[in-house]
Design goal:
The chain has one domain: Aminopeptidase (3-Layer(aba) Sandwich), CATH 3.40.630.30. A hairpin with a 3-residue loop joins strand 1 and strand 2. An 8-stranded mixed sheet has the order 1-2-3-4-5-6-8-7, sandwiched between helices. With 165 residues, it is of the alpha+beta class. Helix 1 crosses helix 2 and helix 3 packs across helix 4.
């Protein structure tokens, strides 16, 4: 499975390229984005190295790493990322929107677009792992049709949506 262009009303989800690193380093530069996930913002060079590794794909042929940058069409700027790690018939998704673009519904829009695209693929279940205090991500997961389960992984709640009966 390979990332393909996904378009929603305000966004284009563009397959990730190492060439996105410099602009994305600025988008993701706020330390606040790491409150629940840990780590710190990466430099453009470090982000380029990370993106090159992601674009190269998973070393496990049974796993697909799918990554997109979000481009807000009204101002032609990158605003965040979404990703899906697909193993068999399950996709684990995640999202991040730069601090300057938060509160506009872009993460929800991107997650809905991604889940709709996954619905068209051979994916039966979509999951996300969200810190219980990360209310904004819980709202994004809800908007994408996921619901919390009673399962935990690394201090995060597993959210899930069955996309196919």
């Amino acid at each position: 499975m390979h990332a393909q262009l996904i378009s929603t009303a305000p966004l284009d989800l563009i397959p990730l390229s190492a060439a996105h690193a410099e602009e994305m380093a600025a988008v993701l530069s706020s330390p606040a984005l790491h409150t629940f996930t840990g780590g710190a913002p990466l430099t453009p060079a470090a982000l380029r190295t990370r993106y090159e590794r992601l674009v190269g794909g998973s070393p496990d042929p049974a796993v697909s790493w799918l990554n997109w940058v979000l481009r807000l069409r009204t101002d032609a700027r990158l605003t965040g990322t979404v990703q899906a790690t697909v193993t068999g018939a399950e996709a684990e998704i995640a999202w991040v929107v730069g601090e300057a673009w938060q509160g506009r519904g872009l993460a929800s829009e991107a997650a809905r677009g991604l889940v709709a695209w996954l619905d068209e693929q051979a994916v039966a279940t979509v999951v996300a792992h969200i810190h219980p205090d990360h209310h904004a991500s819980a709202a994004v997961a809800t908007a994408a049709g996921l619901t919390p389960t009673d399962q935990w992984q690394d201090d995060e709640i597993r959210w899930q949506r069955a996309t196919r009966p």
